Amino acid sequence: MMQVRTLITLALLGPATVPAQTWSVFPQSGASGSVFMTGSPGGLLVHGLGAAFEYDGAAWNAIPTPAPSRRTLAMAFDSIRQRTVLFGGVGVAGGLHGDTWEWDGASWTHVAVAGPSARAGAAMCFHSQLQVAVLFGGATSTGFSNETWVFDGVTWQRRFGAAPSIRADAAMAFDRVRNAVVLFGGGVPGVPNGALNDTWEWNGSQWTRRSAAGPSPRLQARLAWDPHSDRVLMFGGWDGASASAGWFDDALSWNGTDWTPRNFAMRPSARGFHGMAHNPLTDEIVVVAGSNASSFDLTDAWVYPGRIAADATPYGGGCGGLSLVSTAAPIMGQAAISEVRRPVPFAAAFMAIGFDRNLWGTEPLPFALAGFGMPGCTLYHDASLILFGPCPVTAPGVATHTFPIPVIPAISGLEFYLQSWVPDPAANAGGLITSNALALTIGNF
């Protein structure tokens, strides 16, 4: 019952005071400029021109790259076989590649298998239901392509049927809820600035055009799966018009029908040609490097949801020897744990939850409770909800309050307050004593 009340409190009382969703700065990978990024056995893998780095959850580490060096390649992470699959690209000195490589967390292996023709700028993602990497389009030696290919780790197979128009540099990701590959935009000669803004989905057998309208036309945007909203998230891109303009810093979610703008309080600067991927180890989306009007060689990195440290800070004082101590801060997906302590045993302890430490109704806080027959006792928050079920007494003079924190990105950074009270008819005329308070901030680490 206490867990139900906890969820109701956070869901109903919290939204008025929760901070806006945000990105935060992430450790730089070492890559710069135009890069491609996907998941890897170690967490994340970013591949730039002649350099590659893998993130293991704590730090980026330089790894080898397939020879020869290349750019505008395609990559996807096969989460079933735990392999990062890389295909094609264009060499430093020019020349298209049509080779397939796999990274197993220790080394690259050239997979000698026939497949798509040599190309650059193809879009690629992993279809976890079919357990295949899906590749679409790209620029070949004979022009732009609209071919669809799948790779199961052994062979490439071309899939035929109606498809999006020819293009390169499209954004593509897999929607894990609807089991569909989502493709947006890209570039092709013959349209204004060469940029497209159509949205397509592939269900494993055929492509369907889902929306003719949506975000502004662009190429070199990036899509990634957002597990916190159960939607595909797009960020950035370039409209193809000019290197000094037309770079996007907007973020939008696709729900299968519409694109919805995401209004982040803080986010990466406008850019295209960046790396963006979901980190399967931490359930975060990371953006690295890219290019924009100010620099073709951006090196910064960002993470969503923004990293906010959980915190539990005591304030005020108790009466009757009662104190409230945090033993576990409120991290999403875990439990905030606090202990009610008193030098002498007590039969029951109760908890009040608040979201305002400045006003109790119209009364300023802290509020002295002497007028209620409780001299020396003080109310420290607005007591939005009083949990009438007592906290379990776990030892003489100790009761434990466990407060489960749901995984809801919108509440990251939310501050709330706890204060306990214990019935004691002998302590004062009011028959109650109160503890100090705790100011808690919900974090994701």
Summarize the model shown.
By secondary structure, the chain is mainly beta.
Features:
445 residues, mainly beta, Neuraminidase, 2 domains, five-stranded antiparallel beta sheet, 41 strands, 49% strand, disordered N terminus
The first-to-last residue Cα distance is: 26 Å
Our Rg estimate from Cα atoms comes to 27 Å
CATH architecture of the largest domain: 6 Propeller
Could you give me the name of the CATH homologous superfamily of the largest domain?
Kelch-type beta propeller
Share of helical residues: under 10%
The percent range for strand residues is over 45%
Estimate the mean pLDDT confidence: 90
Q: Low-confidence parts lasting 5 or more residues at pLDDT below 50?
A: 1-19
CATH topology of the largest domain: Neuraminidase
The count of β-strands is 41
Number of domains: 2
Assembly state here? single chain
Number of helices in the DSSP assignment: 1
CATH class of the largest domain: Mainly Beta
Main sheet overview: 5 strands, antiparallel
Query: Globular, elongated, flat, extended or rod-shaped: what is the shape?
Result: elongated
Q: Structural class of the secondary structure composition?
A: mainly beta
